[in-house]
Amino acid sequence: MAKFGELINAEIPVLIDFFSHWDESKGTLSDVLRDVAAALGDKAKVVKIDIDKNEALANALRIKGNPTYIIYKKGEMKWRQSGEQDANTLINLVEQYL
């Protein structure tokens, strides 16, 4: 979890997608995140974390829904939502914290 602490303490917003491979909808979520990352460029980080491979972290954050998106900035959780989101919604949310 030390690496997670370093990740979320970034000066720029960090959008994290907590997901599970067994439930990912035919790659559409990956496409959404790719679009978000492309649109935001260096202004924000976009990261995917597999909850099956990171159970301790998922439990510590009480990740129940799949996917769950969280935005952090300077170590502080700014926004959290479970369920699919479209690229434009995620881009607009992250841009609020630039």
Quickly describe the structure:
The protein is α+β, with helices and mostly antiparallel strands. The protein contains 4 helices and 4 strands. Strand 1, helix 2 and strand 2 (45-50) form a beta-alpha-beta unit.
Query: What structural class do helix, strand and pairing data support?
Result: alpha+beta
| CA(first)-CA(last) distance | 25 Å
Total number of helices = 4
Q: How many β-strand stretches?
A: 4
Secondary-structure topology with pairs:
Blueprint: H1 2-8, E1 14-19, H2 28-40, E2 45-50, H3 55-60, E3 68-73, E4 76-82, H4 87-95
Parallel strand pairs: 1-2
Antiparallel strand pairs: 1-3, 3-4
Helix pairs in contact: 2-4
Could you explain the architecture of this structure?
With 98 residues, the protein is an alpha+beta fold. The protein has a single domain (2-95), classed as Glutaredoxin. It contains four helices and four strands. The chain has a four-stranded mixed beta sheet, covered by helices on one side. The mean pLDDT is 90.
Question: Main traits of this protein?
Answer:
Glutaredoxin, four-stranded mixed sheet, 98 residues, 4 strands, alpha+beta
